[in-house]
Write the structure tokens for this entry.
Amino acid sequence: MELDGKVIVISGASSGIGAAAARLFAAEGARLVLGARRAQMLDALTSEIGESGGTAVSLAGDVREEAYAQALVGRALDAYGRLDGAFNNAGIVGEMGALAQMSLSNWEAVMSTNLTSAFFALKAQLPVMTAQGGGSIVFTSSFVGYSNGGLPGMGAYAASKAGLIGLVQSAAADHAADGVRINSLLPGGTVTPAGGQDNPEFLQYISGLHPMKRMAAAGEIAQAAMFLLSDRASFMTGSPMIADGGMSVRLL
Ligand code: NAP
């Protein structure tokens, strides 16, 4: 078991990559706290994991609120008495469109959900992990905003996801000596609700951008996250780890 006994918080666990990660991590022995806003979906997933022999509890809330980041960590400590890992994965694309026409409310919604939430997560998770003598924190960034990922109409999203990479590098440098590893994961296009799973034309367009000529399944990205959370990645910190089907090395 890759994550045997590890206590891990997952945000964005109600759907897509986060839900796939919850199923995988539980099957690999982790004890989980699942977070997202939709409580019913979290309850259903928690029950499913329990029926499969795994261990999970959930706490619904909004990652834009600092109190929720603290509450997720508190739920882990109440349920399991420790915190070994966090997969900070919740995110939104927001409205797509040219920056000159973009509303401030859209910009702020994307930034608070994708980037300010990371600041809150670190503030909640780091004290517990440093006191314990170690841990692993993973943020879901994106191929968008990195290397060849300059997709049109995604300025706010690209800025938020590129911001995560810088935040992670700085935080990793600050806490490497504490035994806390902090990495970002950069998925390529992934078939999920946010990844356009119900839009065949969009899926075809995004698939075509990848040298592999397909998008990732959510479970493939969950595997990459699991590696970073596991002891196999024991010498990795501050890394923007790419899992993008070759997108970042494609010829323009
Ligand atoms: P998804 O299926 O839409 O999942 C997004 C998750 O984030 C949901 O569980 C959602 O739960 C949660 N979430 C959104 N806003 C939230 C908020 N304010 N508070 C709490 N939870 C919130 O999309 P996905 O593709 O799996 O996305 C997961 C991550 O991967 C995101 O960070 C995304 O940017 C990133 N990513 C995706 C792709 C792709 O092609 N799919 C590529 C690169 C990176 P609730 O709605 O229940 O709150």
Q: What stands out?
A: Residues 69 and 110 are 17 Å apart (CA to CA). The chain has one domain: 7-250.
